Amino acid sequence: xxxxxxxxxxxxxxxxxxxxxxxxxxxxxxxxxxxxxxxxxxxxxxxxxxxxxxxxxxxxxxxxxxxxxxxxxxxxxxxxxxxxxxxxxxxxxxxxxxxxxxxxxxxxxxxxxxxxxxxxxxxxxxxxxxxxxxxxxxxxxxxxxxxxxxxxxxxxxxxxxxxxxxxxxxxxxxxxxxxxxxxxxxxxxxxxxxxx
Length: 196
What we know:
Layout: H1 12-18, H2 27-46, E1 58-61, E2 67-69, E3 77-83, H3 88-104, E4 109-116, H4 120-129, E5 136-140, H5 144-148, E6 156-160, E7 166-171, H6 178-190
Parallel strand pairs: 3-4, 4-5
Antiparallel strand pairs: 1-2, 3-6, 6-7
Protein backbone atom coordinates (compact mmCIF):
# COMPACT_ATOMS: atom_id res chain seq x y z
CA UNK A 1 0.00 0.00 0.00
CA UNK A 2 1.69 3.23 -1.15
CA UNK A 3 1.90 6.25 1.10
CA UNK A 4 0.27 9.33 -0.43
CA UNK A 5 2.95 11.95 -0.97
CA UNK A 6 2.46 15.59 -0.06
CA UNK A 7 2.16 16.48 -3.75
CA UNK A 8 -0.63 13.96 -4.27
CA UNK A 9 -2.66 15.68 -1.55
CA UNK A 10 -2.62 19.03 -3.35
CA UNK A 11 -5.83 19.95 -5.15
CA UNK A 12 -4.85 19.90 -8.84
CA UNK A 13 -7.84 22.02 -9.90
CA UNK A 14 -6.80 24.73 -7.46
CA UNK A 15 -3.29 24.71 -8.94
CA UNK A 16 -4.69 25.11 -12.44
CA UNK A 17 -6.66 28.16 -11.34
CA UNK A 18 -3.69 29.78 -9.62
CA UNK A 19 -0.97 28.84 -12.13
CA UNK A 20 -1.70 31.56 -14.73
CA UNK A 21 -1.14 34.24 -12.07
CA UNK A 22 2.16 32.86 -10.78
CA UNK A 23 5.26 34.79 -11.88
CA UNK A 24 7.37 32.87 -14.38
CA UNK A 25 11.00 32.30 -13.35
CA UNK A 26 13.73 33.22 -15.79
CA UNK A 27 14.79 30.23 -17.86
CA UNK A 28 18.33 30.06 -16.38
CA UNK A 29 16.95 30.15 -12.86
CA UNK A 30 14.39 27.49 -13.75
CA UNK A 31 17.11 25.19 -15.12
CA UNK A 32 19.16 25.71 -11.96
CA UNK A 33 16.16 25.01 -9.79
CA UNK A 34 15.28 21.86 -11.74
CA UNK A 35 18.89 20.64 -11.58
CA UNK A 36 18.97 21.15 -7.80
CA UNK A 37 15.62 19.39 -7.49
CA UNK A 38 16.85 16.39 -9.50
CA UNK A 39 20.08 16.16 -7.49
CA UNK A 40 18.08 16.25 -4.25
CA UNK A 41 15.71 13.58 -5.53
CA UNK A 42 18.62 11.37 -6.56
CA UNK A 43 20.23 11.74 -3.13
CA UNK A 44 16.93 10.91 -1.43
CA UNK A 45 16.47 7.86 -3.66
CA UNK A 46 19.83 6.47 -2.45
CA UNK A 47 18.71 6.41 1.20
CA UNK A 48 17.68 2.86 1.88
CA UNK A 49 18.74 -0.12 3.91
CA UNK A 50 20.97 -2.66 2.23
CA UNK A 51 21.13 -6.32 3.20
CA UNK A 52 24.54 -6.99 4.75
CA UNK A 53 25.01 -3.39 5.91
CA UNK A 54 24.14 -1.77 9.26
CA UNK A 55 20.81 0.08 9.20
CA UNK A 56 20.40 3.68 10.37
CA UNK A 57 20.87 3.56 14.14
CA UNK A 58 18.22 5.96 15.47
CA UNK A 59 14.64 4.69 15.68
CA UNK A 60 13.05 7.52 17.70
CA UNK A 61 12.00 7.75 21.33
CA UNK A 62 10.06 5.11 23.24
CA UNK A 63 7.08 5.65 25.55
CA UNK A 64 9.39 6.89 28.31
CA UNK A 65 11.19 9.37 26.06
CA UNK A 66 14.36 7.27 25.84
CA UNK A 67 16.13 7.29 22.47
CA UNK A 68 15.94 3.85 20.83
CA UNK A 69 18.96 2.73 18.81
CA UNK A 70 19.52 -0.46 16.86
CA UNK A 71 23.06 -0.59 18.29
CA UNK A 72 21.63 -0.86 21.83
CA UNK A 73 20.38 -4.34 20.88
CA UNK A 74 23.57 -5.78 19.37
CA UNK A 75 23.66 -9.51 19.99
CA UNK A 76 19.87 -9.76 19.61
CA UNK A 77 17.77 -10.15 16.50
CA UNK A 78 15.95 -6.86 15.95
CA UNK A 79 12.70 -6.63 13.99
CA UNK A 80 11.82 -3.09 12.92
CA UNK A 81 8.23 -2.72 11.74
CA UNK A 82 7.01 0.57 10.26
CA UNK A 83 3.25 0.87 10.70
CA UNK A 84 0.29 3.26 10.70
CA UNK A 85 -3.31 3.05 11.86
CA UNK A 86 -4.66 3.20 8.29
CA UNK A 87 -2.57 0.15 7.25
CA UNK A 88 -4.88 -2.82 7.89
CA UNK A 89 -2.18 -5.47 7.63
CA UNK A 90 0.13 -3.47 9.91
CA UNK A 91 -2.51 -3.65 12.65
CA UNK A 92 -2.83 -7.42 12.14
CA UNK A 93 0.95 -7.83 12.18
CA UNK A 94 1.65 -6.06 15.49
CA UNK A 95 0.08 -8.78 17.70
CA UNK A 96 1.90 -11.46 15.68
CA UNK A 97 5.24 -9.69 16.20
CA UNK A 98 4.43 -9.30 19.90
CA UNK A 99 3.79 -13.05 20.11
CA UNK A 100 7.06 -13.84 18.32
CA UNK A 101 9.01 -11.59 20.71
CA UNK A 102 7.30 -13.15 23.74
CA UNK A 103 8.05 -16.68 22.48
CA UNK A 104 11.72 -15.94 21.76
CA UNK A 105 12.24 -13.79 24.83
CA UNK A 106 13.32 -10.15 24.87
CA UNK A 107 16.89 -11.24 25.61
CA UNK A 108 17.03 -12.83 22.16
CA UNK A 109 14.64 -10.78 20.04
CA UNK A 110 13.56 -7.15 20.17
CA UNK A 111 10.65 -5.83 18.12
CA UNK A 112 10.59 -2.07 17.52
CA UNK A 113 7.31 -0.83 16.03
CA UNK A 114 7.86 2.58 14.41
CA UNK A 115 4.62 4.50 13.88
CA UNK A 116 4.92 6.35 10.59
CA UNK A 117 3.71 9.93 10.14
CA UNK A 118 0.63 9.86 12.37
CA UNK A 119 -0.48 12.96 14.23
CA UNK A 120 0.89 13.00 17.82
CA UNK A 121 -2.59 12.92 19.41
CA UNK A 122 -3.59 9.88 17.35
CA UNK A 123 -0.28 8.16 18.15
CA UNK A 124 -0.85 8.71 21.89
CA UNK A 125 -4.35 7.22 21.62
CA UNK A 126 -2.94 4.20 19.77
CA UNK A 127 -0.24 3.75 22.42
CA UNK A 128 -2.91 3.83 25.12
CA UNK A 129 -4.78 1.01 23.36
CA UNK A 130 -1.50 -0.94 23.04
CA UNK A 131 -0.39 -0.28 26.64
CA UNK A 132 -0.02 -3.98 27.49
CA UNK A 133 2.28 -4.73 24.56
CA UNK A 134 5.88 -5.52 25.51
CA UNK A 135 7.45 -4.51 22.21
CA UNK A 136 9.07 -1.10 21.88
CA UNK A 137 7.04 1.63 20.18
CA UNK A 138 8.52 4.77 18.64
CA UNK A 139 7.00 7.61 16.60
CA UNK A 140 8.32 8.87 13.27
CA UNK A 141 6.10 11.94 13.10
CA UNK A 142 7.91 13.63 10.21
CA UNK A 143 8.91 10.54 8.23
CA UNK A 144 12.65 11.21 8.65
CA UNK A 145 13.33 7.77 10.16
CA UNK A 146 11.39 6.05 7.39
CA UNK A 147 13.21 8.12 4.78
CA UNK A 148 16.54 6.91 6.15
CA UNK A 149 15.33 3.35 5.73
CA UNK A 150 14.10 3.97 2.17
CA UNK A 151 10.48 3.45 3.16
CA UNK A 152 8.19 3.73 0.13
CA UNK A 153 5.05 2.02 1.45
CA UNK A 154 3.54 0.16 4.36
CA UNK A 155 3.88 -2.35 5.80
CA UNK A 156 7.68 -2.19 5.83
CA UNK A 157 9.78 -4.59 7.90
CA UNK A 158 13.53 -4.79 8.45
CA UNK A 159 15.11 -7.74 10.24
CA UNK A 160 18.56 -7.10 11.71
CA UNK A 161 20.79 -10.01 12.67
CA UNK A 162 22.72 -10.42 15.91
CA UNK A 163 25.73 -8.84 14.17
CA UNK A 164 23.85 -5.53 13.74
CA UNK A 165 23.53 -5.88 9.97
CA UNK A 166 20.36 -5.98 7.89
CA UNK A 167 19.51 -9.59 7.12
CA UNK A 168 16.09 -9.24 5.45
CA UNK A 169 13.66 -6.56 4.30
CA UNK A 170 10.00 -6.80 3.33
CA UNK A 171 7.87 -4.06 1.78
CA UNK A 172 4.18 -3.98 0.90
CA UNK A 173 3.57 -7.57 1.94
CA UNK A 174 0.54 -9.37 3.35
CA UNK A 175 -0.44 -12.36 5.44
CA UNK A 176 1.05 -14.81 2.97
CA UNK A 177 4.54 -13.55 3.90
CA UNK A 178 4.22 -14.12 7.67
CA UNK A 179 5.45 -17.74 7.54
CA UNK A 180 8.57 -16.66 5.63
CA UNK A 181 9.21 -13.83 8.12
CA UNK A 182 8.94 -16.27 11.06
CA UNK A 183 11.33 -18.68 9.30
CA UNK A 184 13.84 -15.85 8.71
CA UNK A 185 13.64 -14.79 12.36
CA UNK A 186 14.10 -18.39 13.54
CA UNK A 187 17.14 -18.81 11.26
CA UNK A 188 18.72 -15.67 12.76
CA UNK A 189 17.87 -16.75 16.31
CA UNK A 190 19.66 -20.06 15.73
CA UNK A 191 22.92 -18.24 14.90
CA UNK A 192 25.40 -17.62 17.68
CA UNK A 193 25.74 -14.08 18.98
CA UNK A 194 28.93 -12.37 17.77
CA UNK A 195 31.77 -12.18 20.25
CA UNK A 196 32.29 -8.79 21.83
